[in-house]
Amino acid sequence: MRNIKLKCMLICIVSDWMCACHPENGNKQTTPAVIGNTPALEVSPEAKPTGPTQGDNPTNGILQPTQKAEQITETPTPTKMPVRIDSIPLRINELMASNEAWPIDGKIADWVELYNFGTEPVDLGKLWISDEMEYLHKCKLPERILGAGEYLVLTAGKKDCDISFALSKEGETLWIVNEEGNLVDCLSYGKIKKNVAFCRDFGYVGTATPGKENHISTADSSLTEEQLRDYTLDILSVAVNETDFKALHDNYNKTVTYPIHLTYYAQTTEGPVREFSYTAGMEIYGNSSRIYERCSYQIKFKKEFGQNRLYYKLFEDRDCEEFSSFTLRGGSQDAFATMLRDEFIASLWRNYYGDASSLMTESFTPVNLYINGEYYGIFYIREHLDEDTLAADYGCEPEETGVVNRYHSLTQGSKNGVSELIRAWEKAPYADYTKQEEYEELERVLNLDSLIDFYLLNIWAENRDLIVRNVKIRDGKWFYALHDLDLCFRPGKENATMQFVGNENAGAAAMNTIIFRLLKREDFRQRYEKRMEELLNTVLAPEYVTGRLDLLLARLDHDMKKSCNVWSKKLEKKENAYYISYSRWQEKTAALRKQMEERKDAMLREWEALWGKESEEKNDSE
Asked: Which residue, 29, 200, 289, 312, has fewest beta-carbon neighbours within 10 Å?
């Protein structure tokens, strides 16, 4: 568990005088909302004014100050403890302390939104704003009158900004006082991420509303204390229009994106804490599994839904904190069995090799999913292998990346280098890689270490649904990516080694002609054998594999009971299969563990049998 972070507002709790309530609240203190034992979002002791809609605001947008705030150069005497006054109906309504995406009057800078929630105008020229209690007259507000129900957005921290000081990304308290040093309003916030706003009504939000009423454009996805109770995994809540959600499933063969609101709660030592709330888009994701009731979804962040990026560290094994999309996987074809094959096998490789991996992998975070307040069980937030994710992971531009399926279909990124990959594949059925010239031509296009690892891992995992996916970064060679591992460790008519490298372009191995012909070359075959021995004694060693599996099972176990209770005995009509109970899940994962323990010896026997057969055929031909 992560240590609890001070994410939520401590709105003026230094003493009662700091944030006494406004008159319309009868001067009553409000009690912070609590999730578990942790404050999830503390709201101002003043009531939350409803605020006008855009139609009620005659300016219908951001009001710009007519004069810049006065810059103070002299150091005034530290202000005494401020006394709260209720006669000025002004509040700090929203702010952004690390802004790189929201232009205010054509300027990219941090900003603070003020709101007149009263019925009378407020003379801002008689007020001051500060981020230091000992120095309350730090920056004078612009000389202007803010009408009843109006908003004003002030830029902060840069030259020619309205506020002379920068907002802290680490969190602080902002104070507004009058000329006598009496407190008009104050607002505190915790550590804030890039391009994330903090608003008085909802806390941290990815979709800012500068100059407008704080609102969420779709249904609110916040959960109650009762709904958040007694989980060990993080929680993701999605709110979507019921009609849209039905259409999403009814039209599963179409790719239509519907607006949603989502909220993420992270587990801490003190209980779940709300980490972010965003508006986004959601669509059905997957191939054959998109017909399932427990299907997978893709979450997309686009300007049309609010903001085109999610700024949050979703995965423990990735440094990336910026995403244009992610996938919510429901187990796919493994939803009726262990519900972890794909995630575990990809993470096994990723956890061992990290960023030095020869194979591209998609990271995951297991979460408890709620949709419209209904518990949907354990799903996996998965990294979506697209140009934006690759660019963020590898520090390059999106147009410097490419993702190709089955050696011919560009699905993401740039066309740069795609023709060379396609040409290499088209030549493969006629290639003789024992000839040095043809071998070197292929090596200029493909990373052969990645190719070897790709086939060795898929053979070890007995992947009966192998999909070839290549990824390119900058002007480098094409690597291989791990993808769609749901049908691993399934018995077949022949062993996996024979299936994937013993037959050319047959059955599920229909894309193996390159590796098949490369193995005819003796020095490459020796390289392959050496790497196989290395992997089977490290990342694929039985003790390492089962140790990692046990860690994941322990992580999932508590919440998997609840997840199975929701889905068990439900019939997936389109597959004529039942989702399993918790006891069956235990049986399935125990069987998977046994298969993994035995796979090393079996794989060595398979290779020995194949190569022995090849040697005999070679001797017979001579």
From this structure: 29
Q: How far out from the chain centre does Cα 583 lie?
A: 31
pLDDT of residue 525: 96
Which two tokens mark 595? Answer: 């298969």
pLDDT greater than 80 at residue 509: no
CB 350 within 8 A of CB 317: yes
Q: Do 153 and 104 meet the contact criterion of CB atoms below 8 Å apart?
A: yes
Coil, helix or strand at residue 355? helix
Buried residues in 574-598 as b, exposed as e (16+ CB within 10 A): ebeeebbeeeebbebbeebbebbee
Nearest to 312 by CA among 263, 361, 371: 263
Q: Which of 2, 557, 560, 556 is nearest to 267 (CA)?
A: 2
Q: Return the structure tokens found at 426.
A: 């088209």
Sign, CA dihedral 565-569-571-577, equals positive
Q: Between helices 341-353 and 542-567, what is the axis angle to 10°?
A: 140
Take residue 531 and report the two structure tokens written for it: 């790497």
Strand partners, 214: none
- On whether the CB atoms of residues 461 and 604 are closer than 8 A, the answer is no
Which residue matches tokens 């039209």? 251
The answer to whether the beta carbons of residues 205 and 222 sit under 8 Å apart is: no
Please report, to the nearest 10 degrees, the dihedral formed by the alpha carbons of residues 515, 516, 518, 523 taken in order. Answer: 110
What are the backbone angles phi and psi of residue 248, rounded to the nearest 5°? -60, -45
- 3-class state of residue 296 by DSSP: strand
Structure tokens given for 501: 């490298």
**Beta-carbon count within 10 A of 256 CB:** 13
Q: How far apart are CA 454 and CA 460, in angstroms?
A: 10
Distance CA 140, CA 184 (A): 14
Mean pLDDT, all residues of the chain: 82
When pLDDT is averaged across residues 209-237 and rounded to a whole number, the result is: 86
Residue with tokens 């302390």: 97
Tell me which amino acid residue 101 is.
A
- If 0-12 CB within 10 Å is exposed, 13-18 middle and 19+ buried, where does residue 360 land? buried
- What length does the chain have? 622
Query: What is the Cα–Cα distance from 202 to 276, expressed in whole angstroms?
Result: 10
For residue 353, give every residue at least 6 positions away whose Cβ sits within 8 Å of its Cβ, in sequence order, or none.
359, 539
pLDDT digits (tens, 9 = 90+) for 372-421: 999 999 999 999 888 888 887 777 888 888 888 878 777 777 788 889 99
Neighbouring CB atoms inside 10 A of 331's CB total 27
Name the residue with tokens 């007149």.
Answer: 116
The beta strand positions in 484-583, using DSSP E, are: 571-572, 577-578
DSSP per-residue string spanning 227-247 = HHTT-SSEEEEEEE-HHHHHH
pLDDT grade for 50, boundaries at 50, 70 and 90: very low
DSSP assignment letter at 446: B
The kind and range of the H/E element at 281 are: strand 271-285
